[in-house]
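Field reference: sequence -> structure
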Amino acid sequence: MSVEINEKLVDQIASQIKTQDHLADFSRLLIKATVERVMAAELEEHLGYAKYSPEGHNTGNSRNGSTSKNIKGDFGEVEVKVPRDRNSDFVPQLIAKGQTRLNKLDQQILTLYARGMTTRDIAEAIHEMYGAEVSPTLISKVTDAVYDEVRTWQNRPLDRLFPILYLDGLVVKVHQDKRVIRKTVYVALGVNTEGHKEL
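Structure field:
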């Protein structure tokens, strides 16, 4: 994909989801945006300053564009932009150099959120999944970046009328106020006036 992802485009795509094929296409776009934001957060951690920040002036290293890379997984194939630094010493943790395969990245990210994991828990999970050592600070930046994408999807416009609506709840354990509690995740599956299902 050579499409540049932005929030307006994500909103437009989300409003068009009517079938499983549409959802699969959107899932690939979400993976692209998520992976690119994760790597941007990794580069920010590596450089020690935010993009366009005056703190980066005369530091001896800076952002230096990006290169394209195709990654494959259960979602199919997605082209992502891997950020570079001028000194060429930035090494992405999520997608290592030479790595072209991600297994169930979308499910893993959603699972981490659904479980309400702490930054340390997420760091341990990423280490188990990818063998990468990441700091809790980096995890916080990454989860903040990913949350923007999740919130955009959650707030997408829906049809005004669904003649058929199925409601269900899934009880999960989450971390809240330094303890584990049970919460219900409500799932709504609607059938629109054209007979297509929407989650």
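Note: DSSP finds five helices and five strands in the chain.
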